Amino acid sequence: MEVCFPFTTIVCLLFYYAIFLNNSSLAAADHHILSANQTLSDAQTLISPNQVFELGFFSSGNKKFLGIWYKNTPDVVVWVANRNNPITNDDNRGAPFLEITRNATLVIYTRRTAESTIIVIWSSSNSSATFPSRKNPSLRLLDNGNLVLLDDDKESYYIWQSFDYPTDTRLPGMPMVYDPDIALDKHLTSWKSYDDPSPGEFVYRIVNQGLPERVIFKGAFNRRYRSGAWNGLYMNIPTFYNKAYTPELVFDKENKLLSLQNPYDSNSSILTRMVLHQSGTLHRYTLNDEKNGWDLVYTIPKDPCDDYAKCGPNGICRINRAPICECLKGFEPESRSDWDSQDWSGGCCRISPLSSLPNGDGFFEVRGVKIPDMLSFWMNNSMSISECRDECLTKYNCTAYTQPYINNGGSGCLLWFGDLVDTRVLPGADKNQNIYIRLPISELAEERKNEDLELPSFKFATVAAATNNFSKENIIGEGGFGLVYKGNLSAEEEIAVKRLSGTSGQGLEEFKNEVILFSKLQHSNLVRLLGCCVTGDERMLIYEYLQNKSLDGLIFDKDKRAVLTWPMRYDIIMGIAKGLLYLHQDSRLKIIHRDLKTNFGLARSFKVDQIMARTRRVVGTYGYMAPEYAIDGKFSVKSDVFSMGVVILEIVSGKKNRGFRHQDHHHSLLGHAWCMWKENKAMELMDECLNESFDELQVRRCIKVGLLCIQKLVEDRPTMSHVILMLGCEGEVVPEPKEPGFFLERSCSTSNLSTTPNQDSSGHTITITVLEGR
């Protein structure tokens, strides 16, 4: 009995007679075209004109499929015709064939060997028995990977094309489409497994729920990832890796996304593809011609914060912080024990309920975010931002608002009702990509109290404009606090902006501490603090800009370090020492810096008679911290002396302590300096570019004083007043140094993993548990 599906009986008969009217010895396919009087057998292939793609039958396990792959990398299949109906050897079926029927339908069929019965495996779905016969239908494989069925008399019109039926791969020129008006939904569906092209459980498609976005689903309804909403500029992806990957978007008059595709450029040498992997991740690949293999360019989700609802309802994900999840302002963990074990799925609940009184609530701004999922929302495209705020306050269950479109100065109003789900800070987001969380006035009053700092305040927009929206080109340094940007308030006034980083172990406490201490300090060797900026989650300090930039930007640069002659380096050492003495002894406050490498965020004021303090939270720059501080959390003026010793040895040698390497041992710079001193080779430590300008007595004295400063025991280190005396007075007797702190030779593996000379490690946090008797 003949088996035919999914045709009607009439189509089956047409197909049956079409085959037997042809010559029984079927002609072979010719290059990239299959004509109506030809068949493609199991052993034959179509190849695109420029040898880019190939069409044919391939085996996967004990099943066969018709597919398209790259000619030079045949293991990379980009399209499968019969993924729902694989060809098997059941019932003694013969080899498969591909053919065009008289009514311009593509069919894959086999014959049952014993009965010569034709079994239809797959057919192109657009053809039917009512279609008129085409004069000269042919099948062609194009260089963009599209398999097209056309009439030779009307080559501009495709009867059918594979790009209308994507499988797991999107190629340039292949659109993703969602147009319900014409019942079109072109999306990607993953393979079932790495060797089974059958439809898997993940789907990647366009979603137009409120604002357009792209979503990866697991099953029919469970979201795995969402790109974030279209905001008039981008779908929360502010930068693309290459113009070749930048999609073209087509919207309707209501701003619904109809299609998305990467344009195909026949003149481009770049071969690229995007694949929905069976694990539910999107992979972007480009062909590496030299390796004749594929390079992975990026994946989506790109980090854990991209996982849908990573931090649960009313949580926010910040990939640069540890842990990455925290509750939005005004919320607390639903289950503290779950959060302590880093299970954030339960999310957060309100600390205080919203007010039912007029003017009882306000809003807290969160900047640079992927806005929450639009699960329950209301949107108006014409409202202003102030009207949107008022609208939210009039609705008792409104929890947040934003401007949905940030282009052309911003427009529209989007309100959320209920929980805020899948919110994350988006690195590189536009400065206007913000959301306003509704909170009781009591919560906002506490926030204002925390930010009431006695210092001139700069508006965020002013600082953003001055730094070219925090452009990478404006970055001039990095420390424990975060990145430092150069800015221009005017043609005459330059500033340096320190922006609190999410990766820093420092937070609001250190920020306020630096402001308070700096406002009470005045010294010629201290840079002047001009003001601060506190807006939402943003914390920034604005300083006067120093033309000479930072010391390490010169002294550790092989091309610039020669500018610093020995007299200049000696003056720098003395200047730092005098500034530190001012903090310890001569200022209105007795201040312990704690992180000489970076800023005053970690500084602590002491009482006049206080000698030492202890903290459970050690924050600072590795390589500069004294042993007692790094290990036990104890700090004093002698902790700063240790850091001073490290700085002296770095200035003399032109090398960093952290990341230092030597071919004969695995010591740090401190250990190397001690070895050179013991072997009476101290001058070998000196930077070789100082050979024309050095003073040997001064260099030796600086090395010796530097070694005294880094002594292991606190009591063996000098005070800063004694340091200045030993450095500046040739007649002053300098004691012999002992073995320094951290004099441990690293293993080869540890050394190899350490930071390179051009890198640094700032702002690390160590938590110390102290056992105390009751």
TrEMBL record:
Residues 31-162 form the Bulb-type lectin domain. GO terms for biological process: immune response; recognition of pollen; signal transduction. One of its GO terms (molecular function) is ATP binding. ATP binds at K498. SMART domains: B_lectin, PAN_AP. Residues 349-440 form the Apple domain. Its EC number is 2.7.11.1. Keywords: ATP-binding, Disulfide bond, Glycoprotein, Kinase, Nucleotide-binding, Serine/threonine-protein kinase, Signal, Transferase. One of its GO terms (cellular component) is plasma membrane. It is an enzyme of class 2 (transferase). This is Receptor-like serine/threonine-protein kinase. It comes from Erythranthe guttata (Yellow monkey flower). The lineage of its organism: Eukaryota, Viridiplantae, Streptophyta, Embryophyta, Tracheophyta.
